[in-house]
Amino acid sequence: MNKVILMGRLTKDPEVRYTQTSNTLVASFNLAINRRFAKQGEERQADFIGIVAWSKIGEFCSKYFKKGQQVGIVGRLQTRNWEDDQGQKHYITEVIAEEAYFADSKKESDESNPFGDFENTTATSGTSDFEVASSDDLPF
Predict the structure, then answer these.
(1) What is the mean pLDDT of the chain?
(2) Residue 42: pLDDT band with limits 50, 70, 90
(3) Is residue 11 within 8 Å of 70, Cβ to Cβ?
(4) Pseudo-torsion of CA 79, 29, 11, 104, nearest 10°?
(5) Are 53 and 100 in contact (CB under 8 A)?
(6) Nearest to 61 by CA among 8, 126, 15
(7) Contact call for residues 31 and 71 (beta carbons, < 8 A)
(8) Which of 52, 70, 97, 131 is the most buried (most CB within 10 A)?
(9) Do the Cβ atoms of 73 and 95 come closer than 8 Å?
(10) For residue 115, how many other CB atoms are within 10 A of its CB?
(11) Is the pTM of this model over 0.70?
């Protein structure tokens, strides 16, 4: 089973591009995810995880997700590799988003979310339209 559930803050607005062959939308962004514990006397550390969202989920993320916003992502891990122009091999592990959620608290989203009632909106890869869920439906 390959399932990842993450909650973190966007390090910058999602970047959007389109595939050359099928003109499919792809949104990419990084989540800063705080580690659970900090060593004594040190600041809390964070991991920066790359997220890739395709098609409808990518459209949703690019339209509504902004830098600093806390979001939840459900997806799967995927690794890929390639060789650059100098012949050097590169490897990357990223999360392919299958579901995307707003995760800011209502108070935070009321103050900083210009999208109003969209804080409870989710996007999933299994549907053609966005679904609305209550915050009770969030998996965390």
Answers:
(1) 83
(2) confident
(3) no
(4) -110
(5) yes
(6) 15
(7) yes
(8) 97
(9) yes
(10) 14
(11) yes
